[in-house]
Please model this.
Amino acid sequence: MKELIIIGIVLIIAVWLGERFLKRKLHITKKTNTMDNRAKSLQFFALAILMIGFVIGSIIGSVTLATKYENFNFVYF
Model:
């Protein structure tokens, strides 16, 4: 269970840092979103990569925990 919490915290930090990086690099503000189409597509692909990373990390984490602990319950996951 400890490994799952660590993976979750690492992924939350990665998403937060990725969002900050994209906002600074592409000059995105909360008031206006004046991004051109190239910037919007770049943001979409970056967020998609982060989401795919989360899903893959979750699957790897659950398989690792299931093989390590016999009584691991997938319902919690």
In short: The mean pLDDT is 83. The helical segments are 2-26, 37-68. DSSP finds two helices and no strands in the chain. The first helix runs from residue 2 to 26.
